[in-house]
Amino acid sequence: xxxxxxxxxxxxxxxxxxxxxxxxxxxxxxxxxxxxxxxxxxxxxxxxxxxxxxxxxxxxxxxxxxxxxxxxxxxxxxxxxxxxxxxxxxxxxxxxxxxxxxxxxxxxxxxxxxxxxxxxxxxxxxxxxxxxxxxxxxxxxxxxxxxxxxxxxxxxxxxxxxxxxxxxxxxxxxxxxxxxxxxxxxxxxxxxxxxxxxxxxxxxxxxxxxxxxxxxxxxxxxxxxxxxxxxxxxxxxxxxxxxxxxxxxxxxxxxxxxxxxxxxxxxxxxxxxxxxxxxxxxxxxxxxxxxxxxxxxxxxxxxxxxxxxxx
Length: 311
Known about the structure:
Blueprint: H1 4-12, E1 16-18, E2 22-25, H2 28-35, H3 42-47, E3 54-58, H4 88-104, H5 114-120, E4 125-128, H6 140-149, E5 155-160, H7 165-168, E6 181-186, H8 191-197, H9 205-215, E7 223-230, H10 243-249, E8 253-258, H11 277-291, E9 293-299, E10 304-309
Parallel strand pairs: 3-4, 4-5, 5-6, 6-7, 7-8
Antiparallel strand pairs: 1-2, 2-3, 8-10, 9-10
Helix pairs in contact: 4-6
């Protein structure tokens, strides 16, 4: 699926390819907690995952959007799935082995807590969110099952752009398990802004809305999170337009997360598009006024504010 040059570029960025189409990388916050015990990501603060034992991976390098804020190299994406799909168990095994090799490099640093490092070598949380759109992987429900049943993971989070509602509907039907959390990531506030900012390769806005509608029906099976990426000079003046999505999806939580000027997004957006944390919190407070949700948590280092239903 990738050229040799694309593979070389990804490996320089500390990605490791697994099989035909999967990839793994050590999360920034996993590195931070190895350097300083107790320094963990917002997902541990909000949801109790083990930050140091996080396996951040994706079973699909490809994606059906070319989002302007994406810090990935979208030149490696393709419009549809290509070729044979690897088996879930083999993908997970390969990701765990590649992650372990990447982490072993920390043994050479005086800042590393070696006891913490040894503990972190065995992951128990999966973040299916690294790159691409994971719902394009044809065996995604089986991948979630394998994390729980074959590798004894405590938690599995799935992040999707919502363009594949037919895949989300397979959980619980073609699998024993739902992900612990399903995140639907949103930046646009209507169809036109979606085309402009997310640059889909097909007409998928209606599919995003269909995914929201479906996720409103599975809150008894897993936590559902509507994650709104706040981008200055694009969507931060459109708070009221997001209310309809909160009402449609009825998520367990809404997360307002500030855009970060990282990676390849720096060639598409400017540093002026990055909000400060007080601006992110102001966005959240404005959404509280019109949504029926309340602020229940925040993590300033990650520029994230969590809202929850008053119910």
